[in-house]
User: Fold this.
Amino acid sequence: MSETEISTLGEFGLIDRLTRDFTPSQPSTVVGVGDDCAVLRHSDMETLVTTDLLLEGIHFDLTYTPLRHLGYKAIVVNLSDVVAMNGTPRQVTVSVGVSKRFTVEHLDELYAGIRLACKHYDVDLVGGDTSASVTGLIISVTCVGDAPRGTVVRRNGARDTDLICVSGDLGAAYMGLQLLERERKVAAEVQDEQFEPDFAGKEYIIERQLKPEARIDVLDELRQVGITPTAMIDVSDGLSSELLHICKASGVGCRVYEDRIPIDYQTALMAEELNMNLVTAAMNGGEDYELLFTVPLVQHELVQQLKTARLIGRITKPELGAVLETRDGNEISIKAQGWNAFTAGNMSN
Amino acid sequence: MSETEISTLGEFGLIDRLTRDFTPSQPSTVVGVGDDCAVLRHSDMETLVTTDLLLEGIHFDLTYTPLRHLGYKAIVVNLSDVVAMNGTPRQVTVSVGVSKRFTVEHLDELYAGIRLACKHYDVDLVGGDTSASVTGLIISVTCVGDAPRGTVVRRNGARDTDLICVSGDLGAAYMGLQLLERERKVAAEVQDEQFEPDFAGKEYIIERQLKPEARIDVLDELRQVGITPTAMIDVSDGLSSELLHICKASGVGCRVYEDRIPIDYQTALMAEELNMNLVTAAMNGGEDYELLFTVPLVQHELVQQLKTARLIGRITKPELGAVLETRDGNEISIKAQGWNAFTAGNMSN
Assistant:
C-alpha cells in the first residue's frame, strides 16, 4: 500500500477525494456535500437526528479493528438509533480527525467501509468535517432520518402487562471483543510478525463485534405482522442498561426470564472457554445493536409469529422494580453494569 | 473551584447534569435530549444540517481560551454555516470527549458557554454524546436549521456582473489570535503565575477571536432592504478561500478592491505592532464568521443602503480569474492561503 501524506492533498483536496464516490440517491437530499450545509426535504415527516463520537483508545483498538470495518460500524451504530425510534435513516454526516500516523490510503479504507454501509442501508453522505488531530483517530457521525408523523416510538410508552421482546441474540459482540483482546495480548507476547490468530468456529462473534448491523429488517417484520411497539430502544450498552432506560422513562418495572434470553452457541462456547459468566455477558455486554421493544399484551399471538425477535419478559408495576428471574427461580435485581466510556474496563471483572 | 472527577457521575449522570438547564423552546423540537434520537418537525421547510469538529491543540489552545468562550464559539461557528445558507438555526447536538485532566466543573463551564449561545440565538440543544478521551478536549457540534422552500442561498448562484459584498470587518479574529499567541509565549518565558497580559485598547480583536457571532442580523437587514443574494458563504477560512469557493461553485471570476476591504483600526494597529501585512491578515486570516455574498447589479442602490455590509468588488467572467486590485492599481491573483487544519501554522509566515 502506497503512503500519501494527508497534508499533500490539503483539506479540500482530501474532502474531494474521500467523498467523490458518494452519489446522493435519497429523494429527500436536495444538496449534499460541498456547501455550507446539506439541504434536506422531509415533507410532512418528522425528522430524526442522532450523533455518536468514536474515539481511538476508548471505543476501538486499531490493532484488531480493520479501518474498513470501523467505517462501516461507525455508520451502523448511528443508523441503529434512528431504527430504534421506528424511523428510516436517510442521511449521514461524517467528521474525522486524524493524527500524522494516518495516510490518505488509511482514510480511503475508512471511507470504503463508510461507503459500503451507506450503500447497504441506502443512506446519503451529505457533509462532515476533516481535521488533523494531536493523537489518534476521531470519528463523529450524525445520522438524520425520518418517520411519518405520529409513528415515532419512544422509550416512554411501555405500560404494565406489556410484553418485552428482543431481536436476534445478545452477548456475542462482547464475547467477540474478549476474544480479540485475548489474541491481541497473545500476539504482543509472541512478538512474531507472522502471528495469525485462529478464529475458526468463532466467526460469528468476531463479526458481531467488528461488523454489527442495524435491524431495519425487524421494523419491516413488525409492520408486516401488524405490531406497533409501545416503547423501543437499541441494545448498545447492554440489555440491563436498556431495560432500565425503558423502565425509568415509562415509569414501570419489568420481569425478564433468564431462560428466554437469546444467546448464540458461539457466545456460550466462548464464555465457557474464557471462564466467564454467560448471563452477565448477555445482560451487560453491549454493542449488540439489537432492538428491545414492548408490545401490548393483547398482541401476544402476533408476537408468536415474529421470526426476528422473541418474548423475554413482561412490563410490571413500578413498585416491583426491574427483575431477572433465573432458571432456578431466583430473582435478581437488574442493575446497569453496561459499558461506560468513563470507567472503561469495568466489564472485565 | 471544587474538583469532581467525571467518573463519579457516570455517563448518564453527567449528561443529566450538563443538559438539565436546557429547555427546548423551538416549536419544531418535538423530542429533545433523552431518547435514541431527537425528533424535529420542519413542516414545509427545507432542513439544513452542518457539522464541525473542534480539537484541542489544533483548533483551540486552552491556555488562553476560557472554556465558557470555547463553548459559545463551538455553537456559533455551526450556526454561522446555517446563516450562510440564508437559513434559521433551530437545534444543535453537542458531543464532547474529555481526558482525565478535565473535571465536572470544567464541563460545567463549557456548557455554560454553550447554554449562553443557545439562549442568545434561540436554538435548542437536542442531543449529543459524552465520552472519555485519551488526550485533550474534543467537541463535535451539529446544527440543524430550516428555511422556507426555495429560499436557500448556495455558493453556486453568482453570475457575471454581480456585486460582491461582505459584512462587518475582516482580519480582526486573526490578529486577536496573534496577540493571544504572543502573550502566551511571553507568559511562558516570564514563568510568573501572576503574569497578566495587558489587552487594553485591543479588546475588540480579542473578542473577535474568542467570542465570534453568527450574522443573523445581516440576513434580517437583507430581507428588510429587499435583497436576495445570488450566492453566499461565511468567512471561516479567510476571504480569499471563500471567494474562490464561490467562483469555483458558480463558474465565475471575481475582482475585489483592496481599498474596499473593511478593516477595524484595532486590527490595523495590531498588524503594525507585530510587523505583519495587514491585507494578508484580512484576506487570509479566517475565523471572521462574516457573510460574503453576491447581489445582482440591478440592486446596486439597495446595496448602498446596507448598514451591516459593504460592496468590495464584482463577479467577472471565469476567464478573468480571481483578482485583487491593490491601492496602487496592481492586480494580484487571489490564492487560498486560508487556515488549514492539516498544515496549521502556514499563516505565520
